[in-house]
Design a protein that fits this description.
The protein has 7 helices and no strands. By secondary structure, it is mostly helical. The chain is rod-shaped and about 90 Å long.
């Protein structure tokens, strides 16, 4: 074999090794995104499991607040449905629907806890206090899990869109992953008006 043939074979071998390394890196990053979403899913499951217990404890005290309780129960059902859809196919549309459903559930839980503040005997109930603390802890974990997910998505998207890895990503169908967003509009991003 001539020297030119050896150089061509060597160049092809180096290019193939580089392509395999880039492919493996993209697969690793995609798997990290799946893992990060799994952590969110664990916290959402925990949140969804806490809601019925919280509602049940509050039900005895808040009989004339049935609309608030029903809204929380309905929001939980919608959030579970959105979580199931996102788990089955984590697309941008499903993640957006999940974020919206979780926002409605969070707002409903906030209203429930605000109403509970008006009932001293409910606030003093040990089960209600414990469930409220667990819910607050879960909300914190959920926030951290969402942040970790977005960090993994950013790392993957950066890798898949930078040259020369972009070539391998496009050839092998690695599409950009969707970020989770807490807000969707400029109105949601505005600071709330506080009046005394």
């Amino acid at each position: 074999m001539s020297m030119t043939a050896w150089l061509v074979l060597g160049g092809l071998a180096v290019a193939a090794a580089w392509a395999v390394a880039v492919y493996n890196r993209l697969v690793t990053l995609r798997n990290r995104i799946a893992n990060a979403y799994g952590q969110i899913d664990v916290q959402l499951k925990r949140r969804h499991d806490l809601v019925p217990n919280l509602v049940e404890v509050a039900r005895g005290y808040l009989q004339h607040e049935a609309a608030t309780l029903q809204a929380v129960i309905q929001a939980r059902g919608q959030a579970q449905g959105a979580a199931d859809a996102a788990r089955a196919a984590p697309s941008a549309a499903h993640l957006g629907a999940l974020a919206a459903a979780e926002g409605v559930l969070g707002a409903g839980l906030g209203r429930l806890l605000a109403v509970a503040e008006s009932y001293p005997e409910l606030k003093a109930d040990a089960a209600m206090r414990q469930l409220s603390e667990e819910l607050a802890s879960t909300e914190n974990r959920l926030g951290f899990a969402r942040q970790a997910y977005n960090d993994q998505v950013l790392e993957f998207n950066d890798e898949a869109t930078q040259f020369p890895a972009l070539i391998v990503a496009r050839l092998l169908g690695f599409a950009a992953a969707p970020m989770l967003e807490a807000t969707r509009s400029a109105q949601e991003r505005e600071a709330p008006a506080v009046r005394f």
